[in-house]
Write a structure and sequence with these properties.
Blueprint: H1 3-16, H2 39-46, H3 50-57, H4 66-75, H5 80-92, H6 110-118, E1 123-127, E2 132-135, H7 137-142, H8 156-162, H9 166-169, H10 173-190, H11 195-207, H12 209-215, E3 225-232, E4 236-247, E5 250-259, H13 265-299
Antiparallel strand pairs: 1-2, 1-5, 3-4, 4-5
Helix pairs in contact: 2-3, 2-4, 8-10, 11-12
Length: 300
Amino acid sequence: MEFQREIRDFLMSRRASVTPQQAGLPHVGGDRRVPGLRREEVAMLAGVSVEYYTRLERGRLGGASESVLDAIARVLQLDDDERAHLYDLARNVAPGSRRKRPKPATPITAAVQQVLDSMSVPAIVQSGRLDLLAANDLGRALYSPLDDMAEQPPNFARFVFLDPRAEAFYADIDAGKDLLVAVLRATAGRDPLDRTTTDLIGELSARSADFAARWAKHAVRRHSRGHKVIHHPAVGTLDLEYTDFDLPGDPNVSIVTYTAAPGSPSADGLVPLASWAQTRKADAAAAPQKADDPADQRRG
């Protein structure tokens, strides 16, 4: 990703989404050549010169003060996730910010797995680039269609954009695609030197025109909490709330839990999901033993 172009396109897309009326500017007759605010209008409302704002929008965001960033975020009416993204972009083009960063140690320890296994609801560990890194039995059962993905670890964005089964799995596949693209955008903004993320974005852009079109919109969102409806192949429809909990030591990795309203059909649906999860676990444990049986018999 060319980072200066990323800054330019993000600021231009947000500027185009704010009308003069929304910004509190008086109505002036005549045609406008841009759908949203002009650069000079953003500059005036933010209290900076047109030349300075133009330089920022061209990608030279490094060195901008917190007060200037706050003013731009206010004028462009950025939400909390977009504001955080703007700060990430500024931080990553500041002088001295491009040095190589050490990779954090993997957080998927035995203790993390023990925490997952102690939960009575589906739970997974997910990275910022949307890899499924670990899960408890219920979490693995919930996302069983990802088991046989060619690329490992399984990746939710690859599943949604490249696997035709995703259309039947997610009740609102369109909203799911928008969310995943926005999460990847936020992740890329936090660390532009992460080759695994930029390679994934390049792969999806090349293989999916749908992904490329959504990526061009520059939507940003942090994966924190929300609601999704899944058509599970074994237990039917599950209407679930998800919540992210950051793991200490790496803000790009989190535990995600899935819960259903008490007494709801989806809460009832988690009961057969748990039974099915145990059956799958038992079958998986028995599979190596069955594979060894013929050899054992030949040796006998």
